[in-house]
Amino acid sequence: MELYLAILTLAVCLSADAQFVHNDFKINGCSDTEKESVCGSDGEEIWHADFIQQMGVNTLPDFADALRFPGFYESSIAAQEACQQNLAVCIKAYKSPPEEMDPPETSIYPKNAVQLGVENSLVCHVTGFFPPPVNISWTKNNVVVTEGESLSRYRPRNDGTFHIFSSLDIVPEERDIYSCTVNHRALQGQAQTKIWGVPETAAVSPRLGPAVFCGAGFTLALLGAATGIFFFIKGAATRNTDTAEKEKHFMQWTYQ
């Protein structure tokens, strides 16, 4: 049985004007087969060690100011050596206790307001699980889909668990059904599935709107024209009947 040992360091930082409080963290973890060294702030990862490429990786988004972490990778190697030594001691002392696990909680929602025929994204948020990893899969109308799928990095939470985002690019159409399925060791084979369907109240795409309204207007115009023709023919028939009656009475009066 694997044992995962993590060293968690939290620091509270105040800005210059002392109006904002930030929680910084550093996590060093190891198991029989895995290594992990992560730094972050307010629950968001900003740096991690890539022990395969033997380098540190800055994971801030492109628009953020570039940060440098001199010496972090070297200190992570030293922390891993200490972690492996502590792991051996813990395994011997606690006789390989069962690994602690927390099951995930999953939610699914659209990124933007839903409009039929307009590109959008579905987001599957998986949170509160330990340890990584989780497996996330998508379906559309009961068919597995992978095109347009993306996955974020694992992000640590303040309670020591993790969360992750998976997204799927979609073009909503009427009666489409999507699902997000999550597998994790703590679920013991009982996959967690969330389902999302295109709402009946979804607005018509602005690109489709003029065509729809134009079609409706054309139909109404045809109906109006047909109604006008009907009353015109009916009126003409009525006038012909009245004329015939008048001629009949005139002929009778002349004969008398």
From TrEMBL:
Location(s), subcellular: Membrane
Pfam families: C1-set, MHC_II_alpha
Keyword terms of this UniProt record: Adaptive immunity, Disulfide bond, Glycoprotein, Immunity, Immunoglobulin domain, Membrane, MHC II, Signal, Transmembrane, Transmembrane helix
Membrane topology: Single-pass type I membrane protein
Principal location class: membrane
GO biological process: adaptive immune response; antigen processing and presentation of peptide or polysaccharide antigen via MHC class II
Residues passing through the membrane, by range: 208-233
Entry keyword Transmembrane: yes
Segments forming domain Ig-like: 104-205
GO CC, alphabetical: MHC class II protein complex
Signal peptide start-end: 1-18
Sequence similarity: Belongs to the MHC class II family.
Protein's UniProt name: H-2 class II histocompatibility antigen, A-U alpha chain-like
Organism: Sinocyclocheilus anshuiensis
Name of the coding gene: LOC107661922
